[in-house]
Amino acid sequence: MPSATDPATARRGGAHWQQGWLAEARACPSPNFGPRPAGAVIDLIVVHSISLPPGTYGGPEVEQLFTNTLDWDAHPYFATIRGLEVSAHFFIRRTGELIQFVSADDRAWHAGASHWRGRSQCNDDSIGVELEGLEGERFEPAQYQALVRLCRALKTHYPIDHVAGHEHIAPGRKLDPGPGFDWPRLRRSLRWPLHRFPASAR
Ligand SMILES: [Zn+2]
User: Fold this and answer.
1) pTM over 0.85, yes/no
2) Which of 9, 99, 111, 178 has a 20 to 30 Å separation from 172 between CA atoms?
3) Where's the N-acetylmuramoyl-L-alanine amidase domain (predicted)?
């Protein structure tokens, strides 16, 4: 492993990892995680969308939800998810700001019942990335740029071989990030082969 303070290494990959934490992300540690199963091959990036209340951007509520500090009585919608304990590894705001809640070495709680590339329980061996947004709505150019940088950074450190949406790994149950997410754009930007993406990336 290169030294954590080696500036050449940090520049070369544009990614600097320390125990699963990415230096370029703002760390906001969540208690909602656990160990991955022994031998887990972390080869999947799961793209989600979230906003709280839905459709409202820029507030602290998503960070509060993922750190179990959301005031359930502050909005009628919050009462419908009262007590929910969830997390994702990363959150990308409309501005492109990148926030990390769980070490990518650990198991975050974002996928739920799920199945992809022949394996179930995708939380075991995936990285969850939440985009601030709403199912069916578009996402910002800054978010695609941040997501591309993040996917590349993940690929430098983990054997990433698949990218899919929550809607793909939990069809019929989840709809995010939805039709407003431009999969072909992500694929073109990453220049990764088609087989790594859902069919909608064609
Ligand atoms: Zn989701």
Assistant:
1) yes
2) 99
3) 30-178
